[in-house]
Amino acid sequence: MGETVLALRDITRSYVSGDETLHVLRGVNFELRAGETVALVAPSGTGKSTLLHIAGLLDHPDGGVIEVAGRDAGRLPDKDRTAIRCSEIGFVYQFHHLLAEFTARENVALPQMIAGTSPSVSRRRAEELLGVFGLGHRLNHLPGKLSGGEQQRVAIARALANAPSVLLADEPTGNLDVSTADSVFGELLRVVRGSAVGALIATHNEELAARMDRVVTLRDGVLVEG
Ligand code: ADP
Ligand code: MG
């Protein structure tokens, strides 16, 4: 296994609504290594999305430390967190969240251009990545003209566009039928295993989870080996 690309130390997070406090994360510890695939399998409402958003620097924990690619991301100003998120973290949501008015190629090229890569290099890498996901013939399609499985493949390609250290996916095939989920997930694993990215993937699907290197679960607000 490679070096640690994501470390969570004693992460806590509560939600306050009215006079009730819901302690979702009560001290999560976790390490993800380069090239490793980890499934996060836990029932709805246990805090998977909360944890992934915190790990992806999309949300702040109440306490604890988040290290991404060896940097303590929690203490940085927003501008630096955004830069780390852009270059080191790829995020895949259950619903593709592609930009509707941009083609598949543009959706995958955009995060690279935001990171400072030239348009021509970004386009070329987008084409290459979409080709890897079997979408070489869908480069100029708008998301609305793609099937659910194709949309999710584009979203995964986009998440990998900047060759991040960490890939986080929140039930990425949860919206797909069983056989499409199976093939999209297989491609995701194949691409991840062919690269150095470490992947933490929330899924309800135990069969898919079993194909990953290890399984973790959330129990009473802490992460345990599943
Ligand atoms: P999962 O992804 O495992 O389904 P979530 O992280 O979405 O779990 O939610 C964990 C718990 O926190 C749930 O009980 C949910 O209702 C609650 N929760 C999530 N987001 C908020 C929020 N913004 N405000 C209040 N409660 C929230
Ligand atoms: Mg969720």
UniProtKB/TrEMBL annotation:
Keywords: ATP-binding, Cell inner membrane, Cell membrane, Lipoprotein, Membrane, Nucleotide-binding, Transport. PROSITE patterns: ABC_TRANSPORTER_1, ABC_TRANSPORTER_2. Residues 6-226 form the ABC transporter domain. GO terms for molecular function: ATP binding; ATP hydrolysis activity; transmembrane transporter activity. SUPFAM superfamilies: P-loop containing nucleoside triphosphate hydrolases (SSF52540). InterPro entries: AAA+_ATPase (IPR003593), ABC_transporter-like_ATP-bd (IPR003439), ABC_transporter-like_CS (IPR017871), ABC_transpr_LolD-like (IPR015854), MacB-like_ATP-bd (IPR017911), P-loop_NTPase (IPR027417). This is Lipoprotein-releasing system ATP-binding protein LolD. Belongs to the ABC transporter superfamily. Macrolide exporter (TC 3.A.1.122) family. GO terms for cellular component: membrane protein complex; plasma membrane. It holds the Pfam family ABC_tran. GO terms for biological process: lipoprotein localization to outer membrane; protein localization to outer membrane.
